[in-house]
Amino acid sequence: MSNYKDDCCEREYGDRRPRRRPKINQTILACGTGSGLIIPRHSENKSQLINPYVLGSVVLDTSDLKKPNVKVDFSCIIMFRDDDSDDLRLTFTLFKTTKFGGRIPLGTWNFERDFDDNDQVETV
């Protein structure tokens, strides 16, 4: 039997069929995992505020989508041990990374906890 329909080049170059495009309004879910982080103690003159820490990341390839809308849900459990009534301020920044490595900030959120001398907690 003849095998004239077999593509002899397919073994060398792989499947040449285009990748299937998602349908309109199709949802793609992607999850990332956090690394966990312990922020070292520091005094104001040795502040780590200018050194960012990566809490988590997720990779989502939108190259096959036309005009994609991306929704990001982020949650974090913050545990803070108050030994000497220090205040706490954390700034979370969400970045988009382009295929060439450029980083574009998409938003910034602050978490603040002020401790008074009488141990009343104020959360902003």
What does this structure look like?
- The chain has 124 residues and is mainly β.
- The chain has one domain (21-124).
- 3% of the residues lie in helices and 24% in strands.
- The chain contains one helix and five strands; from the N terminus they run H-E-E-E-E-E.
- The chain has one helix spanning 10-13; strands at residues 33-34, 56-57, 88-97, 103-115, 121-123.
- It has a three-stranded antiparallel beta sheet, with no helix packed on it.
- A hairpin with a 5-residue loop joins strand 3 (88-97) and strand 4 (103-115).
- It is elongated.
- The model has no long low-confidence stretch (mean pLDDT 72).
Largest sheet composition: 3 strands, antiparallel
Secondary-structure content class: mainly beta
Average pLDDT confidence is: 72
Q: Label the overall shape.
A: elongated
What's the tally of helices? 1
Rg computed from alpha carbons, rounded to a whole number of angstroms: 24 Å
Number of strands: 5
Summarize the helices and strands and which ones pair or pack:
Layout: H1 10-13, E1 33-34, E2 56-57, E3 88-97, E4 103-115, E5 121-123
Antiparallel strand pairs: 1-2, 3-4, 4-5
What keywords describe this structure?
124 residues, mainly beta, 3-stranded antiparallel β-sheet, 1 helix, 3% helix, 24% strand
Short description:
The chain has 124 residues and is mainly beta. It has one helix spanning 10-13, and strands at 33-34, 56-57, 88-97, 103-115, 121-123. The chain is built from 1 helix and 5 strands.
